[in-house]
Amino acid sequence: MKSADLYPIYLKLEERKCLVVGGGAVARRKIRGLLECGAPVTVVSPDLTPELWAAATEGKFCYNRREFQAGDLDGQQIVVAATGDFELNAQIARLCRRRAIPVNAVDNPGLSTFFVPSVIRRGPLCISISTGGSSPLLARRIREDLEEELGPGFAEIAVLLGEIRHRIQERLTDEKERRRFWEQVVTPELIALLKSGATENARKQVKAACISLLSE
Prior knowledge:
CATH superfamily of the largest domain: NAD(P)-binding Rossmann-like Domain
CATH class of the largest domain: Alpha Beta
Strand order of the largest sheet: 3-2-1-4-5
Radius of gyration: 21 Å
Number of domains: 2
Helix content: 40-55%
CATH architecture of the largest domain: 3-Layer(aba) Sandwich
Distance between the termini: 51 Å
Number of helices: 8
Structural class: alpha/beta
């Protein structure tokens, strides 16, 4: 599978039932990511890491302490197979594919129908890096490199732009005018200010540009 064959999307998971099979370190990362997105998660595994056990006792996810059964897939909309057993993960992936359930087998890109990217979050700003399952470590290294450039100021400006966006949609009804407006607000200079940590200057620049453009 080539990376060009993958269609990158962001899913709303609040009402999508998600199943994770496995309770080790890899499963822990997958479960944490799903919970952070508000997904209702069910975990099936004979054992859990101490961190996952604590989360289960707090009711953060539904835990079935046993081996996987095919019936566990009933009603699930997303499945992650992270058991540490290559053959079992493959079996789960095949069952999911027959039922048209999106599945990620953590050690088998060929049978997976989706991949979990390495992610950078700065408030509403979310950047994902994926190698299509060919090298998760490379994706992680790239993420670590980008994280140093994208400080907390990006989150503040993303929130500010979101607040402005609603007013702009009401004020500028023509799509071309809106695009021209944003191109004059979100400039390379603004990104340079944020990378340098000059968040307050970036905020002032956004507000000044908005006042100037909207007063025309």
